# Entry
Amino acid sequence: MKTSVNRSLGVQRNKLLRYKLIKELYELHKTEDIPTTVVWRKYICPIYPISRTTLYEVLNTPVISKLRAVQASIDAQTKLFD
# Structure
């Protein structure tokens, strides 16, 4: 049980860290005159091969708050099993 909980929290954490990197890359290249699809096609897709739908999911995810929650869960698991 301990391993599966830790693994799922680790998977969530890594996904959110990847989402954070994608958002940073998007913000770096996005301007008023460049559409989101162009940013996705030219800059994001070559590095992170995700669909456009996934990009919209990433952009609408509150990454920082979810990362804090996952990290708090990981810390609680660590204290519980130490």
In short: The chain has a mean pLDDT of 91. Residues 30 and 39 are 6 Å apart (CA to CA).
